[in-house]
Amino acid sequence: MASINSRASGSLPRFLSLSAEVVENQGEKILLDMKRHFCCFRMGMKTQSGLAKLEGAAPLITVRVPADEELQWFDECLDEDHYLGAGRPVGDYLRQVVELDGKPVALLVWGPACYALKDRDLWISWSVIQRLERLKLIVQNRRFLLLTPKGQCPNLASQAMGVALRALPEQWQQRFGYRPLLAESFTDPEAYAGTCYKASNWEPVGYSAGYSRQSRQHRADFYIANDRPKRLWLRPLVPEAAQLLRSPQLPEEYGAALTAAPSGTLPVNAQQMDSLLDVFRKAPDPRDTNTRYRIGPVLTLMAMALLAGRREIAEITRFATTLTQAQRRRLGLPRKRGTRAFYEVPGYGVFYQVLTRMDPEAFATRLNQWLQSRSGTLPQALAMDGKMIRDHIGLLTLAQHEDGAPFALAVYDQKENTPRCEQTAAAALLEKLPALDGKIITGDPLHCQRAHARSIVDKGGDYLFQIKGNQPKLLARAQGLDALKDTPFLSTPSPATDASRPEPCTPLPSNRSPQTSPMPGP
Length: 522
Hints:
alpha+beta; Nucleotidyltransferase, domain 5; 8-stranded mixed β-sheet; 5-stranded mixed β-sheet
């Protein structure tokens, strides 16, 4: 937890000492000047090589990573003056020293994020597998200590936090090779109001469950209830941080932060896996009768792999090997001969045989029925996309925009203009869907077809399809509409004149303009 403590001892920076000495005569003017300087720091900062400073001026407030010989002093300050102490460095761990006029005024510590937080994960809306793979892209503010006496310098906490946040992504990349997307922190609502977090654009999103470690000397991860939930704060470090964290594909520059999900990580829980097994246990087996792996577990493994985003037979095979022994036993997989508790999983050849011999339509129908029975309602935004599993089966997925989780599936083969091409499969998939009231279906240019649009509109939904040169007349018409003064989607702003041009301003990082939807309001 990174609640703010203020150190009551230690030498003051020269600038702050000067203000204290003249407070009786000209204190008001000096302090106002100091506040004005801090406001300048907030609005006009740039970060270069971990140093935050005003353009065209000497560094007044800076953020740096302490040298190795300063680590002992850094930790001693935290041990003496922070009620939580210095803590133990674990994982990717970064210390920051905030200086004013060359003298330290604040210390911050950043470390790994919590493994799971209900309110945070709900705010991001990512899947379990995404959380496990991308957790390092979230950093936690573990300690925040002011080295000045409490009340000596108003607004210092929020200014120090703001400058540290702006320097954090670059310093983190220099140390660990990637830039974090989101910061998290906690405050005790019974002791701290979190004013500096509010002032530096953190967002309160909920509370922790209210547990703490048994003791600092206890080596195991043993937690007990303390009946004091901590307030959870989040601060995006880049625009659209939540959208990036839950996106199906991350940009390449964040690849260094990805970690493989541990064994046994499934896109469904144990009860859902049991119900999925019950669905596929009733499916006919296209193979010979003397098979070692029954069709129910094999199809269930294939379905869970598809739900987890696997699209190649080799990827499905590797997914199966990540199951724990308990999960393999729960699926009813065979036990290896000569062992008491080792259960084998199907290999590449088994999945190849099933994929090439099964009825793909029946497989998709069973999986669709299971998905729809568990979804409750349709997602607010769905995307159609087709992927081939090698050359054997084409999979058309109607998936959620937020995390790529599929809602409905259809199969097709590679040949266009056939009864089972991707366009035909999409038309059949849309026809089988329930009402689409209040939903938006998006698709690539292949799905920009009159029949698809009519099917969506008839069910009460809306569509947003891309247009390319394969439909030249439609593309020319769309380009003509875009050239109008007022398009059907977004109004075209008129050129600004000297009289109407607004004053330039620099918004704060979190003060983003609200998103504009092309769809009219209800």
